[in-house]
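Notes from hallway chat w/ T.B., transcribed later so I don't forget. T.B. wanted the structure written out for a chain they're using in a teaching module, and asked if we could keep both sequence and structure tokens in one place. Agreed to drop them here.
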Amino acid sequence: MLLSSIGLTLEELDTPALLLDLVAFEANVQTMANHLGARKVQWRPHAKAFKSPAIAHELRRAGAIGVTVAKVSEAEVMASAGIEDILIAHMVVGPSKVARLAALQRRSDVKATVDHPDQLEPMGSAAVRAGVEVGILVDVDLGMRRCGVRSAEAAVELARRVSETPGLRFDGLMGYEGHTLFIPDPDAKRQAIDEAIGRLLAAKSAVENAGLPCRIVSAGGSGSYQFTADIPGITELQAGGGVFACRYYTEICRVAGHQPAIAVLATVVSRPEPDRAILDIGRKSISDFQTPPVLADHPGCQVLGLSAEHATVEVASGESLRIGDRVRVIPGYSDFTFVLHDRILAHRSGVVEACWPLLGRGMLQ
């Protein structure tokens, strides 16, 4: 059993350790909340980014209406921790999953998404057996060619089928403009997002013209939220990971105005060459998805590569990295880093203030 780290300084921690700088985190949260609030768009952050009910509650206190999750098991974790409004932005298929979704309704409003008529009857029957009603969003493909109906007409037909299925309640539409995140030119990115969200809003108009109330229109992630929030008609955004401002969001998705809040604390364990250092972190503790990690306090030192348990660092001339030194390493991608750890240590001014277990880690069903 791990002893509590609360009250320890960063220098006293063992490594590797997942860290959250509360000053930067709170500033990022306020930036995102203010951006959405000024546009009267509700905030439903995607908890797959952080896996922690404690962080979900921090975001709720900042104005989030609830959370988005990817799996039923994640919804169970969040509902058990008192999160009362949850959207599963993934298809809920299979007898076990639909039964668990129905059971969850007694503790939380857990909505699900669909994109095919065959998904409806099992979900509705499970809800009827449990004596509950499940809110449903129809998923619309906005250009990713992943899940989602392909046209406004298909959205209307499926929404009608949802409304006619006992045990189900049609609540609205969902789409994700994820194919636009990496566009480097801001004008081109805005245009691509406008086109993608236009498909979702066209489906909304068609559904409402068919006489079906469309209460929710959910979209957006951190990599697009600063553009998508400007589009009238969107009721909520699912941006979550941007509050940590890893390199994926700041460098690849070019999210502006956020400062790095997440890091993995590592130890220099070897100096095999004057220009090379080895850290006690690797792909089992930090992600290099899309972009390599960087040393927060040693900008002249470049992470050359990760193996399972080692990070190889090129040490620039004039940089001093000695065996035993601690370094903070900003991940390439925070979503893929959270799932490698059991807890995150939230610190302020170098002192650990909270230890938040990542209870959603491993919840894949």
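Follow-up for T.B.: The chain has a mean pLDDT of 97. Might be a good example for the class.
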